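protien #1 (seq + structre)
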Amino acid sequence: AVKDGQLGSVAGAALALPFRLGTGLFVLGYSVSLVSADKIPSDQYSLGFLGLKVKETSKIDQCRRPEKPIEIYEFEGAVH
């Protein structure tokens, strides 16, 4: 049961999981699996689900990185 007036908050919070897992579709080699808790090191965050842990992996570390870091300028065209 959800307390009166809190349904919107609960529904909004529940949307985080499908969006988190859904954005993985756009990452190279992304996969998600349920593993036992002992497969996840204690210093790593993992979402618990039904006594198991959600393990996310990708192959993004195999991609070439730019030689120089990308510089992002906030308010570059702003006039004072």
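ok now protien #2
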Amino acid sequence: MKLERNTLKQRMEQLLQEADEHDIELLDIFLGALERKRQPASHLPPSCLRDLLQYEEKLLDDGAYQITIPVTSVTQNIFGAVHGGIIATILDTTMGYVLNHELVPKGQGVVTTEMKVNYLLPGDGKHLRCVAQTVHRGRKLCVVEGKLYNDRDELIAIATGSFYIFTKR
């Protein structure tokens, strides 16, 4: 289905005329994601998910990897806490990034083969911060641990994941 620009423009104008505060917030998040997608700031390939969730990523001095995301209406469930699927996604992404940071320049990457998440507290606050560290790195399989904190530095979830190393074609 080819999306016509004029049709999209009409839909946007209609939405803006009828939008409430929540609609405007969502539209701002989505437009920001599109803008970030056009100007990738990471050593990794562009990611729509990273742009939508507004990751801020950083390699730490000890070799761990950190991703911070703001808590927004996109990430929240119907009760106002961060959705468990978003929590799992941030843990999985951060754990993968700690490995991919080293492997992508070598023409390799990783995919998740297994992950276990323990949810300890509801995800609330202004932002969430996830830190992941490699526990074991083999030739083909790696094990990584990720910890997710709220903006009060309370541990809200912990995960372990296994990752398969592949060579990009």
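DSSP finds four helices and six strands in the chain.
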